[in-house]
Design a protein that fits this description.
Number of domains: 1
CATH superfamily: PK beta-barrel domain-like
Strand content: 35-45%
Largest sheet: 7 strands, mixed, barrel
Strand order of the largest sheet: 1-8-7-11-10-9-13
Radius of gyration: 16 Å
Number of helices: 3
Structural class: mainly beta
CATH architecture: Beta Barrel
Shape: globular
Length: about 190
């Protein structure tokens, strides 16, 4: 019977942030702690039970703005992949705020390819469900370009397969910098296709 299997690896939370207004800027504001409800992080502009469809799901919903379930409440990236992006762009530093990140974790290699359906559980019991890999877009490139002219244009190529994942809140609770997520991976074979 397929289910979820707890694995030995953990992911340490090294950074937390939230986007106050996507209309103003993608940049996330750093936090020490984050309160998570079923609608996502409190005060986060990406939160809510529902969201308008976007270019990522045009094949399903050709009319942009169709109301769909919000599985993109959080953007999670690994410190290791953020460092690889930074190196590729030739920057001295790359704050996660430029990417609109909600959470940065450390300790998991190839984090962007963690299986969809994986659960990240905090000590409080707060549990996040991984949706899919978060493909790179031009919004972080603009933020980088504003502060580091000439470096933002390479973001999409540098961040390919390293942009982390999106997730939604399965169980509310609180998370804080320095805490560790336990990982529960779907126990099922890879799909063989039609």
């Amino acid at each position: 019977m397929a289910g979820l299997v707890k694995i030995e690896a953990t992911a340490t939370i090294t950074w937390l942030g939230h986007v106050e207004s996507r209309e103003a800027t993608l940049r996330s504001v750093p936090l020490e702690r984050m309160v998570l409800g079923f609608e996502g992080p409190q005060g986060e502009d990406h939160g809510g039970f529902m969201r308008p469809s976007c270019s990522r799901v045009l094949a399903l919903y050709p009319e942009r703005g169709t109301e769909i379930r919000n599985t993109r409440q959080l953007s999670i990236i690994s410190a290791e992949e953020l460092e690889e992006i930074r190196q590729s762009l030739g920057l001295e530093g790359l704050p996660p705020s430029y990417l609109g990140a909600s959470i940065v974790v450390k300790g998991l290699r190839d984090f962007s390819h963690i299986p969809p359906g994986t659960r990240l559980q905090a000590p409080s019991g707060a549990t996040l469900t991984v949706d899919v890999e978060n493909g790179p877009c031009n919004l972080p490139a603009r933020e980088i370009e504003d502060d580091h002219p000439g470096h933002g244009k390479g973001f999409k190529a540098a961040a390919k397969a390293k942009r982390g994942v999106t997730a939604w809140v399965e169980r509310p609770g609180e998370i804080a910098i320095g805490e560790r997520f336990s990982l529960f991976i779907p126990d099922q074979p890879a799909w063989a296709g039609p």
